Write the structure tokens for this entry.
Amino acid sequence: MPNRALRMTAMKTAGASGFFRSMIIALGVAVPLANADGLAPQPASPAVPTAGADWADRAKAFSDLEWITRPSRDATMSFTISIEVRELAVKPGDRVKQGDVLIRARDSDALAAVETQRIRVTNTGPLDSARAAVDSAQTRYDRILEANKEKATNQQEIDDRRVQLDAARAQLLNAANDLKEEAARLRQLEESLARYRLDAPFDGTIESILVESGSSIEPPNPVLRIVNIDALWIDLPAPTELTLSRGLKSGDPAWVLLDVPGSYVAVGTILYVSPVADAAAGTRRVRIEVPNPKQFPPGTRARVRVEKPAAVPAADRSAGDGSDQAAGVKK
């Protein structure tokens, strides 16, 4: 009798379990099936790519000198005055030309000051009036000299007319200098107005914008970063012995293997060899510029050699058009 009760209980439990499982499946809920141990199976781990090992093998065969690439031009920009952002003229990823406006600040007061000053610069009334006064004083002085020839005047009148002419000429000089000062003041105000905007210092790409429209910014907080990656720079800490034995100098070629998919070999140019060696590390900084027509991102690893490689693996040539020239190797 007890055994029968146990069998009935197990059948009810199994029936209830089947009922709930059916309900869950009907509702569209995925239920993992239990394994032999009664536990739900764990999802399989994704395969780990082995590209790193591939790079390591090729890099080791290429050169022992490794460093990191960086943009050839890199500027983190900020305003030099306290401003409120009025307009963001660009967004991250935009390509810009030198001189393009990137960010404008609220500049209504500065703009009004410039417009007022322009009116003052174009107002030549005081200068014209001073010139007319000189012409009048000159005419009166000439007449008194003519009258003196006829003995129709005296020395006192001649001296008075000469003083009046000198005074008129001095007023003309002051009027001309005043206009020059107004023009200089206009240039000063225009320079101040230019501080209310950020212009692109070079052709490049907007990497990041750190403010929003309406933000209040105090100097020297950074607001924008612009880079140019048409060429990459590598500031390689080359062994001092290597730089001396090879006689490295500006203009010499250097071959660079970039850590990018398929790898990529390019011929760079040495821009600069530091005249000072690091005694502790036994190195000198050698700056190498590498053309980057494929716009590979800076920050990737690179292997550098200062002598032409004997051959380039097929995997490297696949980065170009399949030729040695595309891979950056001259035959």
Observations:
- Residues 52-74+228-317 form a domain with the Elongation Factor Tu (Ef-tu); domain 3 fold (CATH 2.40.30.170).
- The longest helix spans residues 155-194.
- The chain has seven helices and twelve strands.
